[in-house]
Design brief:
Shape: globular
Bound molecules: flavin-adenine dinucleotide
Number of domains: 3
Strand content: 15-25%
Helix content: 40-55%
CATH topology of the largest domain: Butyryl-CoA Dehydrogenase, subunit A, domain 3
Number of helices: 11
């Protein structure tokens, strides 16, 4: 077993770290206030090839694999959860096109998405169904060479900002999960519009909106995967996204630990720095240990994916643990800051609001435990 990253991955980590420290982190507080997508940063990420990291060179990517993608998300999240989330959500739509698309669909859509010229979004959740994804009620009905989509999607990251949407709807209402199909929908398609923009608690530099499908006519050629295969497309997509969410947890927790640690080293109490107090050292110990463990879980899940092995359970483990490590690090980080930690001037207050999303989006912590528990019991049966 070799825990050392390749020189190529270490170099890429340094590149993303330098980019994040210079171009991303200094603007995170402003993004939080503005509650809008930082297009200038997105464009710089695109120019630096961030969008194509995991995808093959034939579609304009860097062909560096999932581990490199996870490192990218981790490093970006250390500077801004919002920016990391924007890229993660983009990949949630690119991945199903890459894995399930026809060669024509890949040639048509991937170069712009992988090259970062267009942003993408993945839409599964509806006002009536999130965790119970098979319970979605939006529909698509075949009409000659088109499918006609109707319904509303809720909480869609990159909504409005994205040009390309991968949308899951029911093509057979009688079949539950097996009645779901996914479609590629281009912004500007008649009948497709952007609904309410959410005023979120955190990750406010990432946009989240409703999508409205009102007799939206989508060419039959835009069916992604087979008819009735949409649930599998969505779950496969989320497996990769969940590793990225785990990596967001690692990045967010690291940011909280570093801020709290620096403060503890300089804040004086009882005749010395806070960092001399064992109670503070124990908090730092738990943060540092949690971060290492969460990182290993995320990297292993990414490695399994790169080896072509199954990784649904490991992705769920990486997500639930990374999310909880981030929440704990932010909560204890605020405690180390004392009263200042409870003000908007303290960055960890923002990190805590950002981290809470990680326990909800792309499958809640309860759903992750259902996946892990189910898989574990099956292995023992
Ligand atoms: C900022 C943000 C961005 C998002 N981005 C996207 C996106 O890009 N695309 C997309 O499709 N969706 C997106 N989502 C939606 C997200 O995936 C859902 O919110 C999430 O899956 C939970 O679904 P829900 O909100 O309907 O909650 P519900 O499913 O109603 O769950 C409510 C609570 O009940 C619990 N619960 C539900 N069922 C069970 C069960 N069987 N056992 C135990 N507990 C259970 C849940 O864990 C949760 O705590 C986003 C959400 C947010 C907040």
């Amino acid at each position: 077993m070799d825990f050392k990253l390749s020189e190529e991955l270490e170099m890429w980590r340094r590149t993303v770290r330098e980019f994040t420290e210079k171009e991303v982190a200094p603007h995170d507080a402003e993004m939080d206030r503005a509650n809008d997508l930082p297009w200038d940063i997105i464009q710089k990420m695109s120019a630096n090839g961030f969008f194509g990291i995991p995808y093959p060179e034939e579609y304009g990517g860097a062909g560096m694999g999932s581990l490199a993608a996870v490192i990218t998300i981790e490093e970006l999240a250390r500077g801004s959860a919002s920016v990391a989330l924007t890229l993660d959500a983009h990949w949630l739509a690119v991945d199903p096109i890459f894995l399930f698309g026809t060669e024509e669909q890949k040639k048509k859509y991937l170069p712009d998405l992988v090259g970062g010229k267009k942003l993408a979004a993945f839409a599964l959740t509806e006002p009536v169904a999130g965790s119970d994804a098979a319970g979605i009620i939006s529909t698509a009905v075949r009409d000659g060479d088109y499918w006609v989509l109707n319904g509303t999607k809720a909480f869609i990251t990159n909504g409005g900002a994205a040009e390309i949407y991968v949308i899951a709807v029911k093509t057979d209402k009688t079949k539950g999960a097996r009645g779901i199909s996914t479609f590629i929908v281009e912004k500007g398609t008649p009948g497709f519009s952007i609904g309410k923009k959410e005023d979120k608690m955190g990750c406010r530099g990432s946009v989240t909106t409703e999508l409205v499908l009102d007799n939206c006519r989508v060419p039959a050629a835009n069916l992604l995967g087979k008819e009735g295969e949409g649930f599998k497309v969505a779950m496969t997509t989320l497996d990769f996204g969940r590793i990225c969410v785990g990596a967001m947890g690692v990045g967010g927790a690291t940011a909280a630990m570093e801020a709290a640690g620096r403060y503890a080293n300089q804040r004086q109490a009882f005749g010395g720095p806070l960092s001399k107090l064992q109670a503070i050292q124990f908090k730092m110990a738990d943060m540092a240990t949690g971060i290492e463990a969460a990182r290993l879980l995320a990297y292993r899940a990414a490695w399994l994916r790169d080896q072509g092995q199954r990784y649904s359970k490991e992705a769920a483990m990486a997500k639930v643990f990374g999310a909880e490590v981030a929440m704990a690090a932010c909560k204890e980080g605020i405690q180390i800051f004392g009263g200042y930690g409870y003000t908007r001037d303290c960055p960890v207050e923002r990190y805590l609001r950002d981290a809470k999303l990680l326990e909800i989006g792309e499958g809640t912590s309860e759903v992750m435990r259902m996946i892990i528990g189910g898989a574990t019991l099956k292995e023992l049966a």
